[in-house]
Amino acid sequence: MSLISTSSPSSKTLPILRGQHLHLWFDHEKTKALDDMNYAISENEFVAITGPSGCGKSSLLNLLGTLEIPTGGTLFFRNQNYHDIQDLALFRRQHIGFIFQSFHLIPTLSALDNILVPTLGNSQQKKDVTERALDLLNMLNLGGRSNHFPSQLSGGERQRVAIARALINQPDILLADEPTGSLDSINAQQVLDILCEIKQQQSLTIVMVTHDPAVALRADREVRMRDGKALDMTQVLT
Ligand SMILES: Nc1ncnc2c1ncn2[C@@H]1O[C@H](COP(=O)(O)OP(=O)(O)O)[C@@H](O)[C@H]1O
Ligand SMILES: [Mg+2]
Question: How far is the centre of ligand 2, averaged over its atoms, from the C-alpha of 100 (Å)?
Fold first, then answer.
C-alpha cells in the first residue's frame, strides 16, 4: 500500500512559503544568523517579522528571496523546493518583489524607468509594461511624477516608486525590509495603507521586517524572532 496520498492539497490550503530547520551561518560557523528557523506563511497573508537588531530578520528575508542560500534546511515555494529551482533570477522576477528601507532606486533613471527595470528581461511588449507602470504610478498617487528623478522626489514618493517597481511583474510575494524605517509617521502610514489595499486587490502575500510596533499591528500575524529563530513555534505555523 502506498503511503503517499494521491490527492494533493489545493493551492489555497498549501502555505505559499515554508521553511524547515533553516540554518544560515557566516564566518566559518562563528555567526549563526539563522539557527533552526521554521515557518509557514499562507497565501495572501501579511506577516510582520520583528525582533532586536541582529536577530536574523534580514537573513530570513534574503533566504525567502533567494538572495542567500541556506547553510542547512529546506525552503519551499508552494510545493517547489528552492533547491530544485534552476534559474533563481527568473524565479525572483516571476514571483517576488522587494522593497528596502533605503529605496534602492537608480538615481540616473526617472521614476517610470526605475519601475521598468525589473521588466528588462521580460518578453512582454515595452508598450504593455509601460502602460502597466503608468497605471501603478496613478494608483500610488504619483501620476504627475513619472519623469521625475529620485532626487526630485520626497522619501514617501521614492518608497511608492519602489513599491511600483516591486509590483510591476505582478509577484505573488512582496518582501519588505523596514520599508517605513526612513519615513515620517504620515508617509509610513500611507505606505502601509497602500500595501494593505494592494494585498486585498491583488491577492499578494507580504512578509515585512519592521521595528515599529504600530506597523506590526497592521499585519495579520507577527512573528517575533530572537537569536536566529522564532520565539514561539505557534507563531510561525499557520
Ligand atoms: N553577509 C554577512 N556576513 C557575516 N555576518 C552576517 C552577514 N549578514 C548578516 N550577518 C550577521 O548575522 C546576524 C543576523 O543579521 P541580520 O539578519 O542582518 O539581522 P537583523 O536584520 O535582524 O538585524 C548578525 O549577527 C549579522 O552581523
Ligand atoms: Mg535587518
Answer: 10
CB-ligand 1 contact for 55 (6 Å cutoff): yes
**28 Cβ inside 6 Å of ligand 1:** no
Residue 140 CA to ligand 1 centre (angstroms): 32
Phi, psi of 184, deg, nearest 5: -70, 170
Question: For a pocket test of ligand 1, which of 23, 26, 62 has the largest count of ligand atoms closer than 8 A to its C-beta?
Answer: 26
Domain boundaries along the sequence of the chain:
43-68+85-236
Q: E strands along the chain, which residues? A: 17-26, 31-41, 46-50, 72-77, 80-81, 96-100, 173-177, 205-209, 221-226, 229-230
Tracing cell 534546511 back to the chain, one arrives at 73
CATH code, 43-68+85-236: 3.40.50.300
Quote the pLDDT of residue 238: 63
Nearest CA to ligand 1 atom 20: 54
Block means of pLDDT (10 residues each) for the chain, 238 residues, are 40 83 92 94 95 95 95 95 94 95 96 95 86 94 95 96 96 96 90 92 94 90 93 74
Q: What is the largest CA-CA distance in the chain?
A: 67
